[in-house]
Amino acid sequence: SLYVSEYFSQSAQKLNFYSWYGNAKLFHFHVPEDTVLLRWLLQASRGKGPECTPMEITVHFRHGAPPVINPLGTHFPANATVRPSYNISITLGSAVQNTTFVNVTTPSAGDWFIAAHLPEAAGRIEVKGFSTPCPYMFQADMFVLRLTDMPVLEPGVPMPHTVVSPAKPLHVKVFVPKHAAGMRFELRSCVTNEKKACAVRVVLGSITLPQSFQRILTCTGSVNCSLALDSPPWEKWLQIMVESLGTANASVSVEMLASFTVCRPGSASSFLNFISLNQSQTGARPGTPGAAGSPAQSAGEAPHNTPGQRSSCLQTQPVVREDLDVVSVRYRLLNGPSVPVNSLSPTLLLLNLNTGMDSGGSLVVSLLLNKTSVSLTNATVAACVNAASPVLSLNATRNCSTAFSQGYPLSVSTSSVEATLIVLYPQTDDWFLSLQLLCPKGQGECDTAEAKVTVFAYLTPCFNDCGPYGQCSLLRRHGYLYAACSCKAGWGGWSCTDDTKAQSIGAQNLATLLLTLSNLMFLPAIAVAVYRYYLVEASVYTYTMFFSTFYHACDQPGVAVMCIMDYDTLQYCDFLGSVVSIWVTILCMARVKKILKYVLFVLGTLLIAMSLQLDRRGVWNMMGPCLFALVIMIAAWVHHGTKRRHCYPSSWKRWVFYLLPGITLAFIAISVYAFMETNENYYYTHSIWHVLVACSVAFLLPPRDKHKKPWAWSQKLTCRYQICQNDREELYAVT
Prior knowledge:
With 735 residues, this protein is of the alpha+beta class. The chain has eleven helices and 32 strands.
């Protein structure tokens, strides 16, 4: 045999602390056919700075679809069936790098996914630039060992082979045809080179994570042995590995035989289905099959079982796959949503999810039983949703298992007419829905009975669109797209249905009121600015108060939300107003000439607007203008002090009662904003930030110019005649 090794690599990704699925970094690989050994090379590293601490990285593996993980221990939707993912932990201790190998023998071909993440996020809101987070990097590489000339075992044809030694197992493969109801594998004439009875182990199937359903057959001291499999995967290659359990130098000769039992389906012809589809879309026309007087059925009627169909082992219903959007598919039954179900043979529906781009959503299957169609009150319609191959005989003991997979059971009855199943991240494959009528007293009781079940099946990016407290986000890894829910207002879970830590409506209203009404503390600053003739500054404070109020009213995670315009516009205006308010306040304190002050107002506002467009959350967008304005203010104060030959401002009352309280409030506000805010306390710590900043502005604004008189409204707004005095000096020419 000729083995070929191949190597696949992807670029390293920076890991994040986990708060929702979008924080997990996804790696997507494709394992080729005839792979006998798969080896993952997992490399994790961290920075060398003092902020880097020992960390544990969790890595999840899954075949066919992204792994379904739950690091936070939250609840899944009520009708979702979840199987734990296979995961390992990689510890970064004193060493800055860790290399781990994971081996998988006889892996299943197709898509494989790896997801890696750090532990749960602390919830602290970090201002960009104040702290340097430690970089934790992760990279996954894949090595495969592939057999180029794997022997093919033809059905019904015995194949002799020799296992040279225990160190060199024998690999063969057999193709499973469509509609295969069962497979029987036989090992004949198994002897060693010493003419003794052999001891071999046969492994059928490939490994799929998180669960593997390989079937193992051990033959010791027996000449012939066999294994029967029900519902093997349709239209796929099945790997078979034969290992010798004898001594190192003993070779084993075996003869293998694979035979299949094929199920004959009964269904309407493809031509009639195509005509039915045309009727449902355009309506029947006279003279065409399906029109009035034609024997073809209309699209809204379910076909009745004929005697020929009843004799077959399954009844197939034609299903049309309708692609709606990215990771969004609807399945439509050509013969109407109502499906006839009997007890003699299962009714089968094919749900095609093998495009390679369907595994990033949620498959939803809903059943609705028509009570009037069931004549037996105790009858139950059992259903199984399986990948790769369907269940062809449904009863209470099988639990929807096939040869190499475990399906998802559903059932409806007259006492419970509705049933829903949610499959999160369904693996890339052909999915089958099998339905059969079961009677408690035996199948003979309902041989002539028939039930009608309405089937709704669709693929959606996020189940229920993540509900009212979540947002469905479409994520991308290279060319692969998948969806996940980002929850808010304390809600959690895969679809934001876990209300364990959810905020009450009262808490949501309180948060909205605190974050919005705290901006009214700018009213004293506006009043002081107007009273002291700082009208431009008062306009800036009014702008900031308005947009900060309505930005936080729109930014709320719960139901207490009001957006007067686009969210991004409100956020930009809020950030712009906040930074410009600090800018004009410090320049106003500098007491520079008016023309210079207004030039700096305009020029600084334009530069701040540009920097916020480049990086809205950067700390230097706020600190840069503040520091530059402080430099201008200090230079102006030094100039005034040098010119007057005493300290500026000269009044101790100005320092004690205005400047020092204002500066103290400003420093406390910056400390709260930069170091104390978390996701849990944001609504009141940020409200404190609003109050402290607004109060500091009111304290820091300088007094009005001495030559300006206070506002005297009775003199400013007059409606009477006045006698004006001419103070112009008369100039006389002396001759």
